[in-house]
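Appendix C. Worked example: ABC transporter permease
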Amino acid sequence: MFGFVINKLKNRKWLNLCLLMGVALFIALFVCHSMFEKGAGNQILDRLFTDHATQQNEFPAQMSREGTYAVADYPDSQSVLDKLSGYEQKWIEYVDINKVSSQQLITLPGGRADTEFGGPNNYFTIGYLPGLSEYADVVKSQTDEKKSDTSENLDETQENNENTSTDTGTYECCISEKTMDHYGLVAGEKIYLHVPDGSGKKKITFVISQICREKDINDPYWAKTLSDMGDVIFVSQDVFDEMMQYYSEDNISYSDFLMLDYTQINTENASLYDGYMEQFKDADKLYNDNIRDTLERFFIQQKTIKLMLWALELPCLVLLILFIRMISVQILSLEQNDILVLRSRGATKLQVFILYLQQSGIIAFAGCVLGIVLGYIMCRAAASTDGFLRFTAKDISTYKFVWQMLVYAVAAAVIMVLFITVPVWKKSKDAISERSSRGRISKKKPLWEKCFIDVILLALSAYLLYNYNKQKSTLAISVLENRSIDPVMILDNSLFIFAAALLCVRLTGLIILLVDRLFKKHFSPAMYASFLQLKRTRYNQGFLAVFLIMTVAGGIFDANMARTMNSNMEQRIVYNVGCDAIYNEDFRLRIQYNKNGSVNWMYDEPDFGKYESLKNEGICDGVTRVLEDERVDISAGSGSVSDAYLMAINTKEFGETAKLQSDQNDDINDAYWFNYLNELAKEPDGVIISSNLAKDLGLKVGDSLNYSRYVPEAVDEDQIYASENVKVCAIVKGFPGYERYTYETDADKNVTEQEKYLIVANYATVVEKFGMTPYSVWMNLSKGKTVDDIVGYLGGENSENSDSTADNLTDTQSEKVQSEIYRNITSAQQLIDENKNSATVQITNGMFTLSFILSLIVCSVGFLLYWVMTLKQRELQFGIYRAMGMRMREVKAMLLNEQIFLSFLPLLAGAGIGITATAMFVRLISIIYLPQKHNIGVNVYIYPSDMLELTGVLFVAVAVCYVVISRLLKSMKIAQALRLGEDS
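Step 2, the predicted output written as structure tokens:
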């Protein structure tokens, strides 16, 4: 039996190879889903942890416990530390992740303290930090010897503490730089601490032996930085134990932070670990962590990713099913005689079914093996995209082989076996009844055409589109709140394409009947035969038309959707940044508290010359200061607004540096934005304002307004220190760096939309009226230069950390300087790259690219195969036509006419439907990727290159098909064809 099946496969090897290709691609797409889902999930997790570290300025995987212990139960520091270590061991026992670092701090409540030079009534806490000597540097010490040498480290201080005579009541301690600055302390100064000893107060003297700061404040160890620890004076463990004997306090305070390797948290264990941490919290009210919030956001995004993957894969899976059905139907049609022979020789339906079940099982098994390998390659290729049809060599290490791929492969193989084999049961009819019906062409209307399924589906798609468009704002907010998206919103375009394809098949049949009725009397014999064939087979041929339309329309929509998404994202990022790169300078704020209660403050401006030298070095074409303030009150007449956004600029420098692309400007403003800068340059006391501000306050060009600014928040949150009356010289809808719409999230994680008002003033006037306040440095890179060139220059010989040349910096120091510069710089290109590498965008680009490529392959192979097989089936018919005297030229004309109605018209219809779907659905689906309202609306992009690629491939397929048909016709032997007819 098995050998018989193998021979059957060999007899139609080309058809079975095409079927194998379709099955392998179907299984590969199924397999690709699980790998893509896991890889994207791991990528999201890594991104969420990294973003948390950046936004919250803390290590993103901390487990912590803070509280107090009774001194009676824990009489010394080591017993407390052992207890804390026990908690850490218990946490790691369940959450099986490598420990990165641990920070344990124990403190005793201090009290009022007098300082030797600073006066009385200060408050200090005594603390012991075990890792202080390892993770902190001494910046100043009590001794004057070797002031630049910090070889006297914190361990030596602790040794000195241990050898200090307790009779004197004087102990050495260490304080942080913040404590030094806050109290004006110096190394060697004494602190007199009054502590309760049960019988009253006892004075203990501490001498500041060292002042320290973190070696690397970004080290995971510093869950709490020295600044966060407050006014703690650090002592050795022995001194701390001795201090415990003096206190009459019942409790000792502690904090324990355990930092874990978050890269070991993945999609496989995230849910398990989240459950354990939830149990920790329920069992211990003092327990806390910052991991569960990240995992909560991950679970929401993971659900979205799953829905998106299925929604994006489904149209391609349907296309592959159509392709497989088309081939399997052709195979069954050709093997109809074999089935009749088997049935006439006594084979039962079940036996015939089992025979073809084995045949399809062999194909499915081979497709399963190929599909797993192909799915792995397809997933890696899709993950490497950073745009539509743009493959890169970026890191895709999170996309690995997962065991679920085998399960998906088996499931897909079973589906394919059933899909291919089930129609055989219907074909296995009684030999006599089957023979009597052979040769008949079905003239029965399909069910979908009788019931107007195409019209119903089209109406349903239109209703869904209308409904979703009415809910755009709500849908956008739900995306911003990280709620799950509705997959039907993505699938609606596929429903529209399918319904429109069916409608086009209906209309094509009517067009054929209309043309036949109008011109039947004028047809040549060949044309008459052609239309007769079209009328007889129009129901059977509709499948090919639907296949072609969905392929072309889907390919066009995928290409346009991906291009629109990527282009709009890039445009918005470039607009939001406003230039190539922005460096946020560090301004030192000096505050002086006067005896009369007043406060004086001022900012120290850094050296701006080093940025101007970037132009001389050819790194930048433009550099400018941009003073920004988002706490500005504006009033005009009886109206006022608060929290407006002030930009103070040098108009000439700003015009050379900032960017507002011409197509963006045309979409936003009424005139080119340089005209507004020219108006501002003419008016030293003039301002440019946003159109929403002008509307809300009833302002127009030439009117006056008053704006006020607040003192720094470190001085006072609500104190206005200066105001200025200015004249409106221009009104704009968009301006480089100005985002009109902002979004705020409340404690319940509800997102609200707010509008921001813009006011742009002259930099010199603002500094003159309000004094120097922090500004950012905007830079326009020269051609061929990148942010790395800026960082290399500022972190090298021009660095403030070097005395004269870059040689004065060690490699470690240079890396720290450059790392700090990278943290302070915002690059438009860097943001674009990060956006392209986000999981959602990557999945979309990858799946659209795969769908487009698969559409081209499947369409080309399916189209060619269908027509070749159709020609083979009509060999007898063509032989009769040739025997009746029809010329070969007329036979070709007949086939060309059929191709026009059955291939060319569907291809044109597919292109039209694809473009129509683009216009109808792209802006709606863009909400998933661009949920924020923006100064720049969503523009639909259709790249001619994509259309040319699709058209070129289809043209080649049609041309090859026509050439193959012509050669087959030439090689056809009339006598042999007629003899075949007699034998049948």
